[in-house]
Amino acid sequence: MRLHWLGHVPFEDAANIGVWAEKRGHTVTATKLYAAEPLPEVGAIDALAIMGGPMNVHQYGRYPWLRAEKRFIEQAIRIKIPVLGVCLGAQLIADVLGAKVAENPQVEIGWFPVHSTAAARESDVSDGLPTEFMAFHWHGDTFEIPAGGQHLAESEACANQAFAYGRSVLGLQFHLEYSQESILRMLTHCAHELIDAPFVQDREEIVAGAVNLAPAKERLFALLDNWLR
């Protein structure tokens, strides 16, 4: 299988999604949109992962490639290529599907529990996820659940943490894919976002949360296996 991922900034990559793909024997390619790399022909890939980034889905003036990216995502969904979005990636999918993306009532940064919904417990794609699990978060925006989508997860700070659309489209607001290196890069490049707020941890709390990385990776692998099953 040919898994292609889209990157929006140099410090956010496929992380453990890439590790999973290589362990499963898949071919991994990427388009680094921030470097003006061209998108492939949508028919040349078998699955698409859309990663995070600090921009929002409507910043066309500063990031003109967002329009082409959205068209690419729409094409992939239309021809039923499996599509996964994480954080900004999930917001882009939601936007393409006609759902509203806007500022969340709370900025959410750090390690906070995520709760699966009743719909998740009946969904094949989220089969095996516990009712509650710890995940890493770094976002200020949120998405509404697209019409026809399944609301899969929520947290105290953010009502819409995950959704499925059909059998092949999955959006995650939280980060199960991050490695320790991923988190350290975020702390380097986005430290200014660590404001004094109810759901924003400080650097020490975030670093200490590294004990959650191994179980997060296991849950990611299970989720990805379900996604492409």
Shape verdict? globular
Q: What does the main sheet amount to?
A: 9 strands, mixed
Overall SS class: alpha/beta
**Main CATH class:** Alpha Beta
DSSP helix fraction: 25-40%
Low-confidence stretches: none
Spatial strand sequence of the major β-sheet: 2-1-3-4-9-8-7-5-6
Characterise this structure.
This protein is an alpha/beta fold and 229 residues long. It has one domain: Class I glutamine amidotransferase (GATase) domain (Rossmann fold), CATH 3.40.50. It is 27% helix and 27% strand. The chain is built from 6 helices and 9 strands; from the N terminus they run βαββαβαβββββααα. It has a 9-stranded mixed beta sheet with strand order 2-1-3-4-9-8-7-5-6, sandwiched between helices. Helix 2 crosses helix 3. The radius of gyration is 16 Å and the shape is globular. It starts with a strand and ends with a helix. The model has no long low-confidence stretch (mean pLDDT 97).
